[in-house]
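call fold(seq) -> tokens
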Amino acid sequence: MNIKTLLFLCFQVAGLATYAQENKIPISWKDIPSWSYIRMNSVQYTNDGKWTAFVSGPTQGDLSLTLRKTLDTTTYNYKIGGEVNPFEFNYNSKYIAFFESPNYKDIKANEKAKKPISKKLKIVSLSDTTSTVFDNVQSIQFSNEDSKWIAIRFSKTTSRPAGQPSSESGKGSDLLLYHLENKKSFNLGNVSDFKFNKSGQYIAYTVDADGTNGNGILLLDLKTGLTSILQNDKANYSKINWNKEGTAFALLKSKKDKNYKEPIYTLIGVKNIKGGQNDLFTYTGLDEDQITSGYGISQNSIPYWSKDLSTIFFGIAKIEKAENEKSGEAKIDSVAKDSTNQKIDLAKDTLRSDSTAVQIAGERPKKQNGDNKKDLEKPDMIIWNWQDKRLQSSQRNQLESDKNYMVMSSLYVNENRFISLADSNIRSIVLSPTQQIGYGLDFKPYEFESNLNGQVYADLYIIDVKTGSRKLGVEKLYLNATGSIKFSPSADYLLYYHDGNYYTLHIATSVKTNITDKIPTTFIDAFDDHNVSKPATSNFGWTQDGKHVLLKDNYDLWKVSADGKTYSSLTSNWKNQKLTTSRYNKIYEDDDFIDLKKDQYFTLFDDNTKQSGIALLAANKHSLEVLSLADVSFGLFNKSKHGDQFFYSKEKSNESPEIFTSTDKFLKSEVKLTSNTPDMENFAFSSGSKLLSYVNDFGDTLQATLFLPADYVAGKSYPTITYIYERLTDGTNSYSNPAFPGGGFNRAVYNSNGYAVLMPDITYKLNDPGMSAVACVVPAVKAAIATGIVDPDKVGLQGHSWGGYQTSFLITQTDIFKAAVAGAPLTNMISMYSLIYWNSGSTNQSIFESSQGRLTSGYWDNWDAFARNSPIYHIKKVNTPLVIMHNDKDGAVDYTQGIEYFNGLRRLNKPVVMLTYNGENHGLRKEVNQKDYAVRMMEFFDHYLKATESPDWWSKGIDYIDLPKHLEERAF
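ret:
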């Protein structure tokens, strides 16, 4: 072949590549339902690391499960229907079990008709891919380490006999025990709950039959085939929970009692299991008269054995007496009165919350015939008192959780001795690894003030599990700033953070030691700009030997002794490189602490370049070795349970996440296991990203990410959407999957349609959240324009929630944006400050004073700051066309905020449209609404930034009577 021919072919190939790129079509919103991608949260591996499986398919449609060998390209695909269901490899890596659902259309039809969905189970042998299928399966479990069996529970299909009350209909159904090797099986009837132990030798199961006939807890020894009936009763048994070693289990039994409204629960513990022999303990507490009056074992409790099998831990909760036969009234008052002198001292506000629960729920007490006093209709109302520690709205919102609240307790089995470990002040405790002690937080002394300003304090107590006694460990611990509180492995120390330093509390002596004051660095988070005093950097916890903790300053990683006498840096002055360990990867699932005798892996992040990578702390070494650092974003990083095969994901701004594996601990050789988002081959996609550096109006050097449009050509300028929230450049190498977003904006779709997308970092000065956004965003836009990529006459702005607030404020301070969309914006800091955050029932005051609002007091002492940063007070300066999306059931930002801004702009005859999706909360959940908002937003931006025809809903008024027809014409 001569040189002319070679050059001709090269130009031909280059021309074809350019032609292919230019002829890729933009992603339209109508393409989203068929967009195919891997569900990355579904990826699993066998314990030996030789196989992986994952689910992929369209956003709306039928899916496939891919089964692939990790060391070669052998791949099998199975159709699994229209929904993602759990799937599982067995312990010895020989089988996989997964569900097959009906197709997507049938599932949607069944959901609409409220019909149940029947699923099939397929078990596939990994050695030869032979399979076995079972119909109408509800749940499964492999027999753990034994690996010989699978338990298959079928959906209950039989209807109860005519005349039988639903309360007497059992919840049990057939359970099939299927031997994976010899294919033999046998059936157990009316099984409700079942669990294999760790070794797989035993399966404990409960029978729940119609009329409670034969109900009980049984234990089957799969080695001998012997079934032991541990207990029978006309009761319901549930929540089997084996200990980690598989040598004991606990569960609950519930039984009706005429003296109580709800069933009474009994604790059952089983241990010393040997063949047909075992020790069984039962405990109700009511009969023993040990549990506080008015309390019983909680139905929400999941009981579990202590490591030494001396104790069972469980929860207790309030129980209500049955109605008095004479008056028809519930004996709630007597229970409340009794509780004042009990072991659990209930706070008055808790009693008030519970005693007014009927009124809060809006239910009127029943009238009693023949009693004039009870014939009087009571008001349907709520009383708000200034002394309430929690607002009535908060109490109402949390009513269900209050009802389900459990007091953590324990039973010393041999002594039949009950201990309440918590109460209404210390509502729960965190057990130490030894389970001999725990810590609990008492918020009560500071609760009222904390609910007002969001500055949260608590007294930390150390609790003796054997006696229930407690001693004060740390007084008034500031929880807004603190890092994780962690016991050492032997529970001789407790790690905590206070006033800029990490401390250890010596449990035996109560001595507190500042372990970081001598280290030449700071452990105050330099990136947290909320109204929080000295917020902590993160810590990765204790080493396995209990001698050290691993603490991170803003960049470097430190190994610090428990007594603070020694410390060393595991990173070589990474502060100068702006490099940090962003995550510790827990690759040994059985290790509760960091074992420095084993190789340990950390995810890295370069704050300057936004590169990501992996570092290795080799066994018994004293410094991290950087294995990789590139323009990617690392996701999960894991290791096979058996052997040394590593799995991790990587993605880029314009490359979807892919799974990789390596058998080399230094990750020098890797194999790509997936081929995600095949549709990318047919559609135009972003050409990549550029990281910009700029100086904000406060003189700080910041960064912004500019995501390039699909058709990017150097020297050409493009319409641009500026998307804002807070700090966003950490996502420079993160992928955006085309989808219908709850907030209306999807970066991938806009890039595909010829838009550049600018995402700047915003840093804040206290008492100036809005002005801070202006000081950061406007210079970022100017820096992006200076690159020549952004057309200065075609820049739009979009943000949702806090980003919606900043959007609505920015357009009062600058005309640099030609169009803007604000989703769920707060617009009046003064009126918003004292409104209710309905999703929790608390006020916005705490959010303003300790969280995103970044204001330091109420508006009465800080009026200028509140007004200066409120969009509504600068509304006359708005010249930017604006779309507001604000829903009538928004429980985060009150709907009145959007209404106030809309009506103000309308009064001034400013171009504005508000979209309200009826019944929706802060973000859109309904698919039809997500589609509609996404389409309207792009139509609006296309009109102002691409000069397309104006949509009618923007350019013309909407007659309410014509609205249904208008919506029908736009539906797709």
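The chain has a mean pLDDT of 90.
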